[in-house]
Amino acid sequence: MGDRTQGDGIQGNGPAFGAEESLEEMLEEIAEEEKVTLEVISSGHLEIDRKMEGGLPVGSLSLLEGGNDSGKSVLLQQLMWGALEQGKTVLTLTTEKTAKNMLEQMENLALDVYDYFIIGRSRILEIDSNYIEEKPQISEKLFLVLLECIKKSDEELILIDSLTAFVVNSPENAILNFFTECVKLCDRGKTILISVHGYSFSEALLSRIRSICDAYMELRIEHVGDQWIKTMEIQKLRGARKEIGNMLSFDVKSEYGLKIIPVSKVKA
Hints:
Elements: H1 19-37, E1 40-41, H2 46-51, E2 56-57, E3 61-66, H3 72-85, E4 90-94, H4 99-108, H5 114-118, E5 122-126, H6 129-134, H7 139-152, E6 157-161, H8 164-167, H9 172-187, E7 191-196, H10 203-212, E8 215-224, E9 227-237, E10 247-253, E11 257-261, H11 263-267
């Protein structure tokens, strides 16, 4: 057998380009290509899309976690409007308000989707959270009904606002099964975004659910100086570059919808 030379990039004392380094470069190139070809659903809001590197990845399962009045519903409505403006179809399942109230709120926030609703590009299905609270024993079965509804839907984007009423009275295995089945639906082309109140999960369960999801965004209300502000931190996003800033502060104005607050003003 002959000796290996420096030229083969594996052995030798010189600064040869190693096989490991070559593999690293190849993986980086593949990752860059995936970023370029990754299809996203835009929120229709320039700053939110910038933080999310274009929007929600198509075929992803995303979790939006936050407390009361942290802006979860408004952010979902922003994503609904952006998706419809992009030409997507959207199904919204809501336990938070009626379809009429949602459409009126969106109109007041300059996110009018009445026309899309009328022509069938957007559907809103109401789920009575009071009914679930009065009959906690049916929560587990309702997860199966919810999954069947998503499976049979033709819409590309599914928004659930929120899942909390289902979670509080369901066993952990039923909750995990729901998220696992959602992953399978996303593998078949659905894009699903689910909002929840973090307090409805144990920390261990919430950690497992976060790991299942492709994207995880946390909303908080924080006291900065003499003002209360809403913040969104993107904790996890499939395909995102680590060097991109992942937090933004915002407020909700009736005439302008979701309004970004510059960091300089937040710190002032």
